[in-house]
Design brief:
Layout (H helix, E strand, L loop, with lengths): L8 H26 L2 H10 L5 H21 L3 H20 L15 H16 L3
Length: 129
């Protein structure tokens, strides 16, 4: 059977690691750039977290550094589970109440997070670093 016309499987799996890493890093970067880290911390405090601001800064830092390291192929098996935990917490705290779909029928649902979690599981299973 002929492979995909221009991308071998190993390159496709590498791309599957790089793009989510960069997306997650961008998520932290935009929060930093837009100045919404403290607002994120206040949201966490409103959900019962005692040190919401510290958690928000930690999550933002981890998204940027962890996303870049994952995209570069470093510490993937350590970083991916932390991102999975973060995404599960996002589902619990925000997205589950909004339903399944991100846009269209509903808004802000869980589908994107579930997709990222699935990709992170594949990345963890494949990458030996």
């Amino acid at each position: 059977m002929k492979k995909f016309p221009f991308l071998p499987e190993s390159s496709a799996l590498t791309l599957l690691r790089i793009i989510p890493g960069l997306l997650l890093a961008a998520h932290g970067c935009i929060r930093l750039y837009a100045g919404t880290v403290n607002g994120f911390g206040e949201f966490l405090n409103s959900k019962g977290f005692i040190i919401g601001s510290a958690i928000a800064w930690g999550v933002t830092f981890f998204e940027i550094v962890g996303g870049i390291l994952m995209a570069a192929g470093y510490f993937t098996r350590l970083i991916a589970p932390v991102f999975i935990f973060q995404l599960v917490m996002g589902i619990i705290l925000v997205h589950a109440a909004n339903g399944w779909f991100v846009v269209g029928y509903q808004s802000g649902g869980v589908e994107y997070s579930v997709l990222l979690i699935t990709v992170l599981i594949v990345i963890s299973a494949r990458d030996s670093r």
